[in-house]
Design goal:
Elements lengths: L3 H7 L8 E7 L6 H7 L6 E6 L6 H7 L3 E4 L5 H10 L5 E6 L2 E3 L1 H11 L7 E5 L1 E5 L2 E3 L9 E6 L3 E4 L10 E4 L4 E4 L4 E6 L2 H21 L8 H16 L6 H30 L2 E5 L4 H7 L1 H9 L4 E6 L4 H4 L7 E4 L7 H6 L6 E4 L4 H9 L4 E5 L3 H6 L2 E3 L10 H8 L7 H4 L3 H8 L18 E4 L11 H13 L4 E3 L6 H11 L5 E3 L6 H10 L2 E5 L2 H8 L4 E6 L6 H4 L5 E6 L12 H12 L8
Parallel strand pairs: 1-2, 1-4, 2-3, 6-12, 7-13, 14-15, 14-17, 15-16, 17-18, 18-19, 20-21, 20-23, 21-22, 23-24, 24-25
Antiparallel strand pairs: 4-9, 5-13, 6-9, 7-8, 10-11
Helix pairs in contact: 6-8, 7-8, 9-21, 10-17, 18-23
Length: 603
């Protein structure tokens, strides 16, 4: 009787070896075409094992001739072993989706297929990594030999530690000869710095799990020592400096990855013990919206933890839109005494102050919340917080959401690096669908919503220019809706009276509840406003926006820009009365461009 392995070997023909290429993938539609095209002339079979991709990876693989299997991800080693078992040919070439055969390696494999070879062997090849536009040849990243080609049954993938998630390698069985190719396997690892940040954060989390599983521990100094050692090893000992700035960036982020791996090992016992984490944001609506991604980050990084949001009463309907927030506790500044404020933190294990409200910082300390994270640049936080973040927020051109995610570093979570880009932040909002509250007027579909007020939070656009914009849009047949609070109606009354009865013009100033306004911004085609709650409500729910900003700190759009699609117009020049000196023509042109966008509202 012949074994399965012998049957596969019998498939060898006079035309040479018969080769299966196997690839595991999840959301790799941007990498997979390059990988599959590189093996077209040598692959007799291509197998892609997909793990619930949402970007069309399975369909793309099938269109390029691959056999596609679906399997939930377990570990890298287990997934690759399962993929290899689906191969029907006597030789297997295992690639990652972000890898491709270089021309020289392709020629070597073509030559290998055409000549007699070893029936029980494996072949390694050097791997050359492409990093943000540069090939990395030092710093421990090259030659980085990998065994990727073997005869069926000659070995298997194994993790570095038993049951581990990371650092899998292919291990040959006893007696299997390992030969070498000299040409490079190309590794297109990171197209942008954000790609690298996202990946090293993921690997830090998995590496920490592997370390804990192996019984390893950490201390206060260990993350710093490991980071320093990693940088020195890669940048100096392994000559990463010879790759120029790219090599030094690789060393830097590798050091950050080492820091976070051992920080997570140290923090793991606390993370497991926590059941409830609070986020405090006691200022404006827009600030709450830009901070809500922190709740989504907590849900993903600590899925067992209940996320509590502490805010003022007027922000509650906005916060309630996020699926990531489990419960909301309202701070009534005027009516709450010290005991009531302390009760806001009942049962809370850790709290992050996205806004360092002095009374609430003191209340959290009185309530003996174990971990209290806040900026160290405010006197109240310096006094009452016990984990302080020292990075300047006011004069740093980093988005408010990104700076908020950095506050989660105080909890021992690499949130800023797990979610480095704006699209990540919008995904973290996990926004509920429309509230299905009181009905709204008809005719909102396709309209442009103008929100002139901004409660003095930054320089806005003058009412005269808003009125001129409304007239220009109406002249083009575009419906216009004007919104605002009852208090703002006083300043807007002369304009609204002049526009009363104009076809296509809707006066909703002071007429809608906050819930209705949140629903309305999902129905219109575009929202025009300065950095206000309605602008951020619209962006969070997928409605394109035209944001009007002052370009100077601390009002700049680099920090306060909306999370969604659209355009931001920024200028430092202001009119005599304080309004932004943006022309009506420029804003109208931006509205036209934004209305042409193809968008999908959040649900």
């Amino acid at each position: 009787m012949r074994t399965c392995h012998e049957v596969k070997q019998a498939l060898r023909t006079t035309f040479g070896f018969v080769l299966s290429v196997v690839i595991i993938a999840k959301n790799e539609s941007h990498n997979l075409p390059r990988c599959l095209q590189s093996v077209q002339t040598v692959a007799d079979e291509v197998i892609v094992v997909d793990s619930d991709s949402t970007d069309g990876t399975p369909e793309l693989a099938e269109s390029l001739g691959a056999r596609v299997f679906q399997r939930p991800f377990t570990t890298y080693a287990d997934q690759k072993n399962w993929a290899a078992r689906q191969a029907t040919q006597p030789y297997i070439l295992s690639l990652d989706a972000d890898e491709a055969l270089g021309e020289a390696l392709l020629a070597d494999i073509e030559a290998w297929k055409s000549r007699p070879g070893h029936a029980n062997a494996a072949w390694s090849m050097p791997r050359l990594t492409h990093y943000c536009g540069d090939w990395i040849r030092h710093g421990g990243w090259y030659p980085d030999r990998k065994i990727r080609l073997w005869s069926a049954g000659a070995g298997q993938w194994k993790p570095a530690t038993e049951g581990g998630m990371l650092h899998e390698s292919w291990v040959p069985h006893h007696g299997v000869e390992v030969l070498e190719f000299d040409s490079d396997l190309l590794h297109y690892s990171y197209h942008t710095t954000a790609d690298h940040q996202r990946q090293f954060a993921k690997f830090s989390l998995l590496g920490a799990e592997d370390a804990a599983r192996g019984g390893r521990t950490s201390s206060f100094l260990k993350p710093f020592a490991r980071a320093a050692f990693q940088w020195f090893k890669q940048a100096i000992v392994q000559s990463g400096w010879r790759d120029g700035r790219a090599g030094l960036r690789v060393a830097k982020w590798s050091a950050v990855a080492a820091f976070w791996k051992w920080t997570l090992v140290k923090a793991a016992p606390s993370h497991r013990a926590w059941s409830r984490v609070a986020i405090v944001r006691s200022d404006a609506l827009g600030d709450n919206i830009l901070t809500l991604p922190l709740a989504g980050a907590l849900r993903r990084l600590l899925p067992h933890v209940e996320v509590v949001w502490i805010c003022r009463p007027y922000a509650r309907p906005v916060v309630a839109k996020s699926k990531a927030v489990h419960s909301i506790r309202v701070w009534e500044e005027a009516s709450m005494d010290a005991e009531a404020e302390g009760a806001l933190f009942a049962g809370v294990d850790a709290v992050v102050f996205a806004f360092p409200e002095p009374r609430l910082l003191a209340a959290a300390a009185r309530a003996r919340v174990q971990v209290r994270v806040a900026t160290g640049r405010r006197w109240a936080a310096f006094r009452w917080a016990n984990r302080r973040m020292w990075r300047s927020r006011k004069h740093t051109p980093e988005h408010e959401t990104a700076q908020g995610l950095r506050l989660l570093h105080g909890l021992g979570l690499p949130a800023r690096w797990c979610f480095p880009e704006r699209q990540d932040w919008r995904d973290l909002l996990e926004w509920h669908a429309s509230s299905a509250g009181d009905p709204l007027p008809e005719g909102l579909d396709g309209a442009v919503l103008l929100h002139p007020g901004n409660h003095g939070s930054a320089n806005g656009w003058s009412l005269t220019r808003f009125e001129d914009l409304a007239k220009a849009l109406l002249a083009e047949g575009v419906s216009v809706v004007v919104t605002g609070s009852p208090q703002e109606r006083i300043a807007l009354t002369p304009w609204l009276e002049r526009m009363s009865g104009t076809p296509g013009f809707t006066d909703a100033v002071g007429a809608w509840t906050l819930a209705q306004l949140m629903d309305a911004v999902t129905q219109v085609r575009c929202v025009v406003a300065s950095s206000t709650g309605p602008l951020h409500m619209a962006a969070a729910q997928g409605t394109p926006t035209v944001g009007l900003y002052r370009s100077d700190a601390p009002f700049w759009p680099e920090r306060w820009g909306p999370l969604g699609s659209g355009e931001v117009l920024a200028i430092s020049e202001v009119e005599a009365e304080g309004g932004l000196n943006l022309s009506v023509e420029d804003v109208l042109a931006a509205v036209h461009r934004v209305r042409a966008l193809d968008v999908t509202h959040s649900v």
